[in-house]
């Protein structure tokens, strides 16, 4: 919805009257299509009715008998409540009245994944208000490892070492300075792959996660990792992804390695490390190695 929203309405009737009607909302990527209503019309709610008027023409629809809507990108669920129902009509009417037509709809924040449509925004009740993603970049569900990235790179690859690291000139001593924090920059794997406002967490956000959540070593769908639970009952699961060096994957299922946006120096970066006994962030590890990214916003 970043561009101005054009809502096109058409009414479908059958021979027996309105019992099988459907109200179809179209949200095109651009331009207007021909619709079965005049160019000028109004839509407004009145009690349990939805009233469509154009000139001397007035059509009243029983909201409870509106069976379905279609919506190009979200299949009708305009208000993101995982249902296609009359509540979506109210949302669309607000948009048509100028209440939010040029802005992104507010995204739903959860304390756990409500369905399989990942990623979700998870609230752990953290003091800073930071929200965590339910899964890693490159993963389609929380227990999947996802992609591995060298620090400051935004695409996975087959071999991770100093020769393949794009932010150096072939060796550790020739690393480039990417600044004091890469969150939200062109070097941020979360922002590059998921778009803003998703970003890589800073080391302080890892520390906040550790300080304000309990964590336990557990398994989710037979994948081992640590489950973090916030003071509000919100939970996220971080799988024990291991890490990559050269073409090998080390420690998978036993250790978790996650990048922050914070460098240690020009050739090392901080990282979150956990295993069956504990979780904490370490001072430094080679930037050229491949590790997981769990976004925040």
What can be said about this structure in brief?
By secondary structure, the chain is mainly β.
Report on the structure:
It is elongated and about 80 Å long. The N terminus is likely disordered. A 3-stranded antiparallel sheet has the order 3-4-5, covered by helices on one side. It has a 3-stranded mixed sheet with strand order 6-7-8, with no helix packed on it. It folds into 2 domains: 89 residues, no CATH class; 178 residues, no CATH class. Helix content is 9%, strand content 29%. With 297 residues, it is mostly beta strands.
Brief descriptors of the model:
about 300 residues; mainly beta; 2 domains; 3-stranded antiparallel sheet; 3-stranded mixed sheet; elongated; disordered N terminus
**Beginning-to-end CA distance, first to last residue:** 19 Å
Name the shape in a single word.
elongated
Estimate the strand proportion.
Answer: 25-35%
Number of domains: 2
- Number of DSSP E strands: 16
The share of residues in helices is: under 10%
Low-confidence stretches: 1-39, 66-76, 100-105
The number of helical runs is 3
Mean pLDDT: 79
Oligomer: single chain
Order of helices and strands: EEEEEHEEEHHEEEEEEEE
Structural class: mainly beta
Radius of gyration: 25 Å
Biggest sheet strand order reads: 3-4-5
Could you give a short account of the major beta sheet? 3 strands, antiparallel
